[in-house]
Design brief:
Helix content is 43%, strand content 17%. It has 259 residues and is α/β, with parallel strands linked by helices. Bound molecules: zinc ion.
Length: 259
Amino acid sequence: MRAIDTHVHLDDPAFIEGAAAVWQEARRAGVEGAIAVGVEPATWSRTLAVARGLPGVRVALGIHPQAVPALDDETIGRALADLPALLGDHGAVAIGECGLDGPAGDLDRQGRVLREQLALARDLALPVSLHVFRVHGPALKLLRDLGPLPAGGVVHSYSGSAELVRDYLRLGWSFSFAGAVTRSNAKRPLAAALAVPLDHLLVETDAPFQPTGADARDRTRGEPRDLPEVIGALARARGLDPEELAETTTANARRIFRL
Ligand SMILES: [Zn+2]
C-alpha cells in the first residue's frame, strides 16, 4: 500500500525518540508522504527542523485555535507578517493547522486569527489544513462570508455530521479522516465519510493524537505508521478494496497539496 498522511504532528514531544525513527517505520508501512503541520509561532522552527531531510515529508505552518488564547495580538501580528517568507523559504505546501475550536473559547478572537490566515492562503494561493471542533455552524458562516479559496483546503479529522458535508463541499473543501473511524463505535464519522465524494476524501493520522484501534484507550499515542488502519476502516465502510482507496486518497492529496 502507498498512502499519504495529510496531517501529522511530527514535531510533537511525544515522539521523543525522534521523528526520523517514527517516519522510517511509517515508510515501511507504505506511508510514502506526509504533511507535517506546525501549530504555533514558537514551535514553527521545530516543525521545519524535524521535517527537513525526511523523504516525502512536506510542511504546513499555522496558528492552531487552541494556541490563540495564550498569544497576544502583537505576537500573532508579527508571526503572520513573517509567515509568507517562512512558507516560501521552506517550500511549505499549505497554511495550517488553523481553525476554530469550541472548547478553546473566545470564538470572535479565534475567528479574527483564522480570517487572517485564510487571507494569506488566498494571497499565496496555498491550500489550508483546517481544524474545526464542535463549532461547525460558526465555521461555515465564516467560510461562507469569505467565499471559496483559490487553492481550497481540507477540513482535517472531520468531526461534523454527514449533512454538513454538503455545505463544506459547496465552498470547495475536502475532508480527511483519522483514527476516529477505526473505533468500534465509529458510526458518526463513518456516516460522514460515506457522504464525501471519493475525489474529496483524504486520510491522516493526526499523530500523536487520535491513536487508531477499536478502543482508543488501548494506546497512548498514534503514529503515522497507523495510516493503513484508517484506510482499512474507510475502505470497509465504502465496500472498496483498501489498495484502491489508498490510491484514490493519495491522488487527492497530491492534487490538493500539489505534492
Ligand atoms: Zn492536528
